[in-house]
Amino acid sequence: MIAIVEPRLVCPAAALVHVPPRRACELSVVIPVRDEEASLPRTLAALARQRDTDGSPLSPDCYEIILLINNSVDASAAVARAFARAHPTLALHVIEVHLPDDEAHVGRARRMLMDAAAARLASLGRQRGVIATTDADTIVAPDWVAMTLDEVGAGADAVAGRILVDPSGFALHDRHARAFHLRDVTYRYLVTELEARLDPDPFDSWPRHFQHFGASMAVTVDAYRRAGGIPPLPFLEDVALYDALRRIAARIRHSPAVRVETSARPEGRTGFGFAVQLRQWSDMGERHQPFLVESLPAILARISGRHGLRVAQPASCQPLVPIEMAISDLRRYLARLRSESAKSISTLEQVHPVRLLTAAD
Fold first, then answer.
1. Which fold has domain 5-166+210-261?
2. Among candidates 260, 25, 229, which has minimal Cα distance to 112?
């Protein structure tokens, strides 16, 4: 089947893709694209090589890909069309739009895409059909589609995937940015394990991770609509969707089995994101500013306060502490909890101790 390629649109249309989805389609991958000609071929190649959980090639009929190329000045559209011609069995839809300046951002583009995907899956009667989104500088794992569908099949309303960082790009950043990132990941994983042990969620049990960002997010049509869709914000629209899903008590799975690898490029495409965070950490290191985070007592108070209610309350009155101190406290506390646990937990992903880098490294 020839890939579907839409003509350039002057403004957003109610229905982005005018050709009906394939009848077997269970998942629609949506990707906002702006000036991504260099990274787009690898992103699309990973999606074209999807495998089932047993390693067999995944049928191209069970998923589709929709690209919204907005306000690009490079050859992103030409690259996408060339890829479509080279992969005629792939259901790849390429749409070009020019958005007004005040709407030319990732939040509006992702909203347009996810709304369109929801309508397409609903037209097949699939209220539990899956809208999955990633970014144009991200490489999904070979079983990304299959593992996402597995998590939804197990009862999840939304699936947040584990986002790893491209090591080659990460190595180009200075030692301060790298050290702060490693400490941040270690701290967040330890806090996540503590939450899972003290306030377990039956739909998001350990092992799990802490990320819920646009590089790997998926949601059922029903949950997406009940949440009111993704807010069209200039940035952090993915976090806003996560918050909206929590408000409707959606079953959100932070699955370590759903994985992607994203770029660590120094220049991002939004007002805030990983690139901006890396620059901030670099500046903090150069100025010898401490990395302050929530302390163990504050974390325990927060978890205790929400236990049974599942409404996280910010511990704004608690003092912040250096991240090195928090990591040390968390490790000691979790070591005690682990030793007291009568049942060992088989993990899909272990967090290895991270050597804290110093300015001398």
1. Spore Coat Polysaccharide Biosynthesis Protein SpsA; Chain A (3.90.550)
2. 229
